[in-house]
Amino acid sequence: MVLPDVRAVGGQSWFVRILCRPGTADTIARSIAARPDVSRVGLASGGAEVLCAIQTTTDNGGTALLERLPRVAHILGFDASTVMHTYTGAGTQWLAFDDPLTPAQVTALFEGASPRGAATERTTPARLVPEDGALLTQLAADGRSSVTALAKATGWPTSRVAGRLTELLTTGSVATEIDLTPEQFGFNTTAFIWLTVPPGALEATAQALSRHAETGFAAAMTGNANLMLAVTCRDTDALYDYVTMKVGALSAVGHVEVVPVLRRVKQGGTLVENGRLEPTGSRRSQG
To answer: How much is the CA Rg of the chain, to the nearest whole Å?
Structure first.
């Protein structure tokens, strides 16, 4: 699927940890997951904590959800941190995937683009406009839509569709994502890791961590911990090895907090029901 970068609509991404009264977290998580401005939801801390990613924009009421949380029954407290910058780990693929392409094929595929594994330049996303709505809706429903299908959905000439899509992709205004259930590949342990790193070492440390095959998401954050990772491992033994051997090998890393995810409720805008992905009608990126 193809998702818009929240910065392209003048918004911000937040990551929120919500402490719930015992026995209420699942209901709260499902209620939050139903919102289109929430892209990821999981249960942690034995089912007493809800972790979620929220996108705030002027279009979705700004910080409406953040302002409402203190008034929700059974929420004992919450901590919200802003995503300052995300790290893509360009060229890194997940542990479960083997690359079937030869080096020559990779070169041909990325000809004219950033080389695989190279650090990507920071770009300012092109501002999304209301006219992009039909285009983004079609791409969210089917990221493999042809230019012809997109032209039909938008009513634009194919040349305009192709030009606008190229602009949105090259400026980082939209990005491609793949939703899957890691358990189907034998990866049963997902965790969020919060780290403290001296500001001067944050960029290099975050780049190194983002290139680990276990890392699905890495971001510089506001708050007490200034770096957050989302990692997927085969089991808790593999998670232990990752934390001690890979994270621990980086000298700049200070305090580390590891929070295993008990159950995923929503990811990348897709609901997770009984181990299966259930698409929703509206999705947004965490970037």
So the answer is: 19
- Which token pair is 176? 């491609």
* Token reading at 71: 């008034």
Burial of 180 (0-12, 13-18, 19+ CB in 10 A): middle
87-98+181-261 topology per CATH: Alpha-Beta Plaits (3.30.70)
Whether 257 contacts 225, CB under 8 Å: yes
Question: Could you state, in order of their start, the residue ranges of all structural domains in the chain?
Answer: 10-82+266-279, 87-98+181-261, 104-176
Mean pLDDT, residues 6-35 taken together: 89
Check if the beta carbon of residue 89 is closer than 8 Å to that of residue 211. yes
pLDDT in tens, 107-159: 776 565 444 444 445 566 777 888 888 998 888 777 888 999 999 999 999 99
Contact 138, 149 (CB under 8 A): yes
Whether pTM exceeds 0.90: no
- What would be the CATH architecture of the domain defined by 10-82+266-279? 2-Layer Sandwich (3.30)
Report which of 286, 287, 285 is spatially closest to residue 143, judged by C-alpha positions.
Answer: 285
Whole-number Å distance between alpha carbons of 118 and 253:
23
What kind and span of H or E run contains 106?
helix 103-109
